Amino acid sequence: MNNNELWQSVLAQMQLYISKANFATWFQNTEIFSRENERMVISVPNAFSKEWLSNKYYKLILKTMHDIDNTIKELEFIINPQSSKNLFVKKVIDLEKINIDQLKFEEFKINKETNLNPRYVFENFVVGSFNELAHAAGLAAAESPGVAYNPLFIYGGVGLGKTHLIQAIGNKITNDFRKKRVKYIPSEKFVSNIISAIRAKNMESFKASLSPIDVLIVDDVQFFAGKNKSQEEFFHIFNSLYEKNKQIILSSDKPPNAIPELEERLRSRFEGGMITDVSLPDYETRLVILKTKLQEKNLKLPEEILEYIASNVKKNIRELEGALNSLVIYYKINNNIPDIEVVKKLLKGFVFSPFSVANYKKIIETVAKFYNLEERSLFDKTRRKEIVKPRQIAMFLLRKELKYSFPAIARKFGGKDHTTVIYAYKKILQEIEENNKLTDELNLIKQRVYSG
Ligand code: ADP
Ligand code: MG
Predict the structure, then answer these.
(1) Which helix (H) or strand (E) holds 321?
(2) For residue 114, which of 155, 159, 161, 169 has the smallest C-alpha distance?
(3) Which among 346, 343, 441, 336 is positioned nearest to 394, based on CA atoms?
(4) pLDDT tens, 157-201?
(5) What's the pTM value of the predicted model, to 2 decimals?
(6) How far apart are CA 66 and CA 74, in angstroms?
(7) Which of 115, 166, 410, 425 has an alpha carbon within 20 to 30 A of 136's alpha carbon?
């Protein structure tokens, strides 16, 4: 077996372990460069591939090679000097390959039976440390629905891939288990269906319509907050499916314990299985996501531009896609690749401002929004639990993030005695020590304060 054949069989094996999107990104333009005794030298096109392959795939590649030829004991990755030079001359974009209609009408047909969008699949879902747990849990649920994790609860901020992931689970189950009936329902739709059923007095038939379902996927369950009647009906629907070992998958913008005005019994149902989050992708992963999206569109952009987007558009994946799309549209109209100065202008609205720092207004706004409260409720003179905790968190953040003095915070909150503020601050600190959930909650709030 020569080096090329050896590498081809390694690649064939690798495809079994990782998604198409990741495979294409990391293994394109790789080859065996040379062999030095027990060490194989593999050439890769750029520094990112090098870092990623040596951090993430070293063991897997080595094991695969070792299985083929047990005298191979070590790997080394080098950047192919040829290909990094090529990057600069490679200002190509394959016009012929672009189908303008395809760009315009990217929407795939939504399946009427399942409500799933076939665009959301595991194959184009990029995995990194920011979402690997959620991805692994999702895959496990897709492989053995109703057995592995039930319910599976995935939470995280806007545009971080929750809908994509939970729909990918649904699409995989539909594909692999032809007989299983999958249903995807956004919570907003769920609530409005429940309300219409109550009005029309046909709740029983609404429930009956859901009973043959094997996999129920409910998106954005935070929407149920405060909707008591809908929660009650949802609780019964949940139970009757759960008792039959049907898979239930839920997404939310916050963990169950942080959803305000959620009935205790529903909260404990949500918490009864696996809870996992998706957070923000790092620079390398943002770059991979961009490359994956371009590949889907059959487009290429110079590395320099991709690096610019990846290092500047940080808010979430939806924005990353938005930034990319605005370049694609520019390209469509002008028929040439924008140079980096033009790119900077085009992406102004997407760029994460280094001045995006916390301030009083943002903290109050974000805390109120997080707990579905009006901003002014935070200042109400009340001991109601739903208000007290958010108020203490707001005080805590003003102190911790903005270094406000305790008396200054007291003044903001209507001249409260500043010992109340100290009490709030200490209470939150102590709770953080005692329970991880609150830490998660605070991190989510902080993430939103700083990315707003
Ligand atoms: P959320 O439901 O969390 O608000 P979405 O699932 O709607 O976010 O994701 C927003 C956009 O980003 C979608 O177009 C989705 O395809 C894309 N996206 C999110 N996560 C990923 C990922 N890990 N890999 C590839 N694309 C992603
Ligand atoms: Mg969503």
Answers:
(1) helix 317-334
(2) 169
(3) 441
(4) 999 999 999 999 999 999 999 999 999 999 999 999 999 999 999
(5) 0.72
(6) 9
(7) 115
Report the distance separating Cα 136 and Cα 125, nearest Å.
12
Question: 340 vs 88, 299, 328, CA distance in Å?
Answer: 13, 17, 14
Q: What is the CA radius of gyration of the chain?
A: 25
- Judged by its nearest atom, the ligand closest to the C-alpha of residue 162 is 1
Q: What is the pLDDT of residues 247-275, one digit of tens each?
A: 999 999 999 999 999 999 999 999 999 99
User: Which two three-digit tokens encode residue 187?
Assistant: 């919570």
Task: From 281, 351, 342, 310, select the one nearest 46 (Cα to Cα).
Answer: 310
d(CA 131, CA 143): 18
Q: Kindly report the average pLDDT of the chain as a whole number.
A: 88
Who's near 84: CB < 8 A, 6+ residues apart?
45, 46
As a whole number of angstroms, the distance between CA 294 and CA 406 comes to: 51
Verify whether ligand 1 is closer than 6 Å to residue 393 (CB atom): no
What the block records as the tokens of 88 is 């600069």
**Dmax over Cα atoms in the chain, in whole Å?**
81
Substitution candidate for ligand 1 out of 315, 317, 350 with most atoms within 8 A of CB: 317
Q: Is any atom of ligand 1 closer than 6 Å to the C-beta of 400?
A: no
